[in-house]
Amino acid sequence: MRFKINRDRINQAVLIVLGSLFAAVGIQVFLVPAHLVTAGVAGLAVLLSYVTPIPAGIGLFLLNIPVFWLSRRYLNREFLAGSLVGMAGLSVALWATAPLADWHPVQDLYLNLIFGSVITGFGTGLIFRARASQGGTDVIAAAVRKVSSLSIGVLLFVLNGAVVLVLAAVYGLEPALATVVVIGIESVVVERTIIGIDANKAMLTVTSRPEEVSQALMERLDRGATILAASGAYTGEPRPVVLVILRTRQLAVATKAVKDIDPQAFTFVHDVTEVIGHGFKAPPI
What we know:
This protein has helices at residues 7-31, 40-51, 56-71, 77-96, 109-129, 137-147, 152-171, 173-195, 210-221, 251-261, and strands at 200-206, 226-228, 241-247, 266-272. It is an alpha+beta fold. The protein has two domains: 7-195, no CATH class; 200-272, Alpha-Beta Plaits. The mean pLDDT is 87.
């Protein structure tokens, strides 16, 4: 398949570059001065930079060589190419921003922890939005899913746990415990960056007036609605269900619309992801 430069490719490249820069700045400006590390193989590369003369950028590249080599036969070319570009981008960004580690703009451990994890997580999320990854554990996880039933969560826990234990042995318990918090905050920020802050919701309403409820929802929300045929398990009587997908910010308007039409309606809401269709943009990964 020939490589074509188009708007999508340009957007992808921009996201990878920005994501790599954000992640590198978060690591070098906030995490490294406080002797904290990020998650995964990138965290291992940062840890190696603490105990050896190998810079984090070079360490990340070297650690990923065996990862990509061993995983190449199990993964498709598109995923490997995206991961390779993302990993190379972060490696170069870490190398280029290494002098920032001597800046020390913030002295407080907890401020470094918060800002470092948020900025790094945001950068990582941008890379994922570009349908790429940072290599390392992402590639390992994808390969393991192909050949084994081993839990990816267990694998990541062992890797991150080993990094935290070595950090505790070298710098003490406080940086190690702070790193656990960093990894937790990063995971939340990465997810929010991928799916967006204004998440999608699915609202289902069991009502005796489905046509009127669906019409009110469509008029007030400018969203489509679907009437599902259902019946009560005990009575066997028809109990139509109105389904609508909406933004979080539209939820209050939607529930009021239902209540205005049918105060006895039964409504429940849950989170949904990767909504594809008119009026919604799916996470691009």
